[in-house]
Design a protein that fits this description.
Elements: E1 5-8, H1 16-26, E2 32-36, H2 38-48, E3 53-55, E4 67-72, H3 89-105, E5 110-113, H4 118-123, H5 131-138, E6 145-150, E7 153-157, H6 164-170, H7 173-189, E8 197-201, H8 216-230, E9 234-239, H9 241-244, H10 247-250, E10 255-258, H11 261-272, E11 277-281, E12 287-290, H12 307-321
Parallel strand pairs: 1-2, 1-5, 2-4, 3-4, 5-12, 7-10, 8-9, 8-10
Antiparallel strand pairs: 6-7, 6-11, 11-12
Helix pairs in contact: 1-2
């Protein structure tokens, strides 16, 4: 990469800052700059008993173990592990803005995000539904696709953070087609898969049983799949979700498109929790993230596992290199 990755350290009361500190102590941050408050990192390092040297300014390459490069983003108030404070919500979002702006200008090769608390940002009076939606708005991207990857298993979502009763209305032919186009294109371009094969799940039990258990699979999903298949896109489905995640199906596809959040992600997280990576497809920049939340109960304890952040950094570097 010609530029470093940006790592946003996330909710300051959560485990994000100390995950960054742990990886820095081991020399596992790679060619990256962590965006956040230097004093917070020093404090977490002291709590964990880790020697840490903070570097600022030019970053010519990866730093050795025990050193962290920081792009300073000061907190509004001091953070305490496990104690959310709405006063820091604006600072958390400013970290994202710095990373996005740097990716657009080329100062950063891509961005990796540690977890944030949606609730405390909303408690501060700032409407926020998640990283994915925020980055889409910030980059003026009309539609992005959330995908989690654990090894060779990749699960993308047709809808993300919606109440279950709103999901069916959100799955329109237009949205489904664009989602599949974004997924197929980024699997080719970002992941360098020449002819991606995608399994498309049905919405209803047994993929609707030809309309007897709901009409969406027959009237919306199947026509889109068949039309795109006739155009040369390798699609399979709609498949019943309860039998799609079997070795026989998965060994023949590069990704699975689930219709909603909890249809696909429980399987993915069971298969690779702690090592899975969240990737936002469709953005003009590279963005990956961890597969877990802020874990306030672990903050400051040193027991948080940095495995997912390590994997997210590695994937961001690979995607940026492509």
């Amino acid at each position: 990469m010609r530029a470093p990755l940006a790592i946003t350290s996330g909710e300051p009361a959560g485990i994000g800052p100390e995950l960054c500190v742990q990886l820095a102590a081991r020399g596992e941050l790679g060619y990256a700059s962590v965006i956040g408050d230097p004093e917070l990192f020093r404090e977490r390092a002291r709590m964990l008993g880790l020697a840490l040297t903070i570097r600022e300014g030019e970053l010519p390459g990866p730093l050795p173990a025990g050193e962290m490069h920081v792009t300073p983003q000061r907190l509004n108030v001091a953070a305490r592990p496990g104690v959310l404070d709405p006063a820091n919500a604006s600072s958390v979002l400013e970290m994202l803005d710095v990373a996005v702006d740097g990716c657009i200008t080329g100062d950063f090769a891509g961005m990796v995000t540690a977890p944030v608390s949606k609730a405390v940002i909303n408690d501060a009076g700032i409407p926020f539904t998640g990283h994915t939606e925020y980055l889409a708005a910030r980059t003026h991207t009309p539609l992005v696709v959330m995908m989690l990857a654990a090894g060779t298993l990749r699960v993308a979502l047709a809808t993300t953070h919606l109440p279950l009763r709103a999901v069916a209305d959100a799955i329109t032919p237009e949205r489904l087609r664009v989602t599949l186009e974004v997924l197929e294109r980024d699997l080719r371009i970002r992941f360098r898969i020449t002819r991606p094969r995608i399994a498309v799940l049905g919405l209803n039990p047994h993929a609707g049983e030809d309309g007897h258990l709901g009409h969406e699979d027959r009237d919306i999903i199947r026509p889109v799949v068949e039309a795109m298949r006739s155009e040369g896109v390798e699609l399979l489905g709609p498949l019943p979700a309860d039998t799609a995640f079997t070795p026989r199906v998965l060994e023949n596809v590069d990704a699975v498109l689930a219709m909603y959040h909890d249809q696909g992600l429980p399987v993915l997280k069971y298969a690779g929790f702690g090592e899975a990576v969240n990737v936002t497809l469709g953005l003009p920049i590279v963005r990956t993230s961890v597969d877990h939340g802020t874990a306030l109960d672990l903050a400051g304890s040193g027991r948080a596992d940095p495995g997912s952040l390590r994997a997210a950094i590695a994937m961001a570097a690979e995607l940026a290199g492509s």
